[in-house]
TrEMBL record:
This is Pilus assembly protein CpaE. One of its GO terms (cellular component) is cytosol. GO terms for molecular function: ATP binding; ATP hydrolysis activity. InterPro entries: P-loop_NTPase, ParA/MinD_ATPase. GO terms for biological process: negative regulation of cell division. It comes from the Bacteria.
Length: 400
């Protein structure tokens, strides 16, 4: 059923204020195919401008627009430069890149240039309208930024069971104990199916992460306060859902809004990532200042760690943002694999090692406490403190 409206030519007036004005900039062939495919089911306020991807786009064409869809040829430096100029000149204007066969790495690169979304070619009217509606919804719930945002430290694992959550909780506690901002540190358990951060730190709260993810436009400071669990010493916890939650149920934009709110509310944000990788886990990782990748000295762990490093590289995460940490490192002669072997295998330096101290770690977690609270002379706690001191030098509020 048609919308009983029409296309406007670029630059024409579409009526009173408040009406959406979307500019589509694409080559003549793409525009003609778009017109033909729409078959009269057209939209008022949609402006079409036929222009080759490398041609200069006058600023006045964008001044009264609520969104711009711009064809981009990534292999053409002039086309990419045009996109960059638009994003820099109109930082609050949602810009959508129209591109053929966009890879994950390319999408990440375009996002870093400032775009808000990507559409495929040939253009589809319904897809453009849906992105327009989604963009408007995001703008309506956007939380105003006040001051610098807190840095994010994401902790991930090479394989399940390698102790990443134990390290994440202790790193978060160390950050909380050394910050000067007075707002505390929050650790978010993003392992929606097997998360134990809340149990390890002995916290309870009326809600959990799922309450924030399901809040939609209701996401605010009051709701956030209702799901925070206090772990003491300036450390706060957002626990994983009690019930197993499908990974595909997470809305990436909503998760990023949650993280953004946390970055305004706290001095540091620590993310305990799940073992499985999805679009939303990658999106969370891409936004982190430091990613701590926890490995063990085993062939299986190092193999999976190498695959994760390749994944990070494919989405544009810089190697210097990744910290390799070897957990359960035993200092004994005649090991089959040692730390230097791990560094050579991964092609990446090892930032630190954590001693094998399983009985003390397990005992502390069973009590919902940190290892240092149970055993002051723990080798595990000492190694984590050394690691945390190194990481803190790379986490400075306001450098992002």
């Amino acid at each position: 059923m048609g919308k009983n409206v029409h296309f406007d030519q670029a630059g024409s007036q579409t009526g009173g204020s408040g009406r959406s004005a979307i500019l589509v900039v694409a080559s003549q062939a793409v525009i003609e195919e778009f017109r033909a495919g729409s078959q009269g089911d057209l939209v008022l306020g949609l402006h079409l401008l036929a222009m080759e991807p490398h041609e200069f786009l006058p600023a006045h064409m964008l001044q009264d627009m609520t969104m711009a869809v711009i064809e981009v040829h990534p292999e053409d430096q002039r086309s990419m430069a045009r996109l960059t100029r638009v994003c820099e000149a109109f930082p609050t204007l949602p810009v959508v890149a129209a591109i053929s066969d966009a890879s994950v790495a390319l999408v990440r690169a375009l996002v870093r240039e400032g775009i808000c979304d990507v559409v495929s070619l040939p253009l589809d009217l319904d897809e453009i309208l849906q992105i327009s509606l989604d963009t408007l919804a995001r703008q309506q719930v956007r939380i105003p930024q006040t001051g610098a945002l807190a840095p994010v430290l994401a902790v991930t694992r090479s394989i399940s069971g390698c102790g990443a959550t134990s390290i994440a909780t202790h790193l978060a506690a160390d950050l909380a104990g050394h910050e000067e901002g007075g707002k505390g540190t929050v650790i978010v358990d993003l392992d929606l199916q097997f998360g134990h951060v809340g149990h390890y730190l002995g916290t309870t709260a009326r809600g959990n992460l799922n309450d924030l993810l399901a809040a939609g436009n209701r996401l605010d400071e009051e709701l956030l306060g209702s799901v925070l669990g206090a772990a003491g010493g300036g450390l706060w916890v957002i626990a994983a859902p009690e019930a197993i939650m499908p990974l595909e149920a997470v809305d990436t934009d909503q998760l990023l809004r949650v993280i953004h709110l946390l970055r305004q509310r706290f001095d540091h944000v620590v993310l305990d990532l799940p073992a499985n990788w999805t679009n939303w886990t990658l999106s969370a990782a891409v936004g982190a200042e430091v990613i701590v990748l926890v490995v063990e000295l085993s062939i299986a762990s190092l193999r999976e760690a190498r695959r994760r490093l390749d994944l990070f590289a494919s989405v544009g995460i810089a190697p210097q943002s990744i910290a390799i940490v070897v957990n359960r490192a035993e200092k004994r002669l005649f090991r089959t694999i040692d730390v230097s072997d791990a560094a050579r295998t991964l092609g990446h330096a090892v930032l630190g090692t954590i001693a094998l101290d399983a009985p003390q770690v397990e005992a502390a977690q069973a009590e919902g406490r940190l290892v240092g609270q149970v055993q002051r002379k723990s080798r595990f706690a000492a190694d984590v403190r050394t690691l945390a001191e190194t990481l803190r030098t790379g986490l400075r509020v306001g450098e992002n």
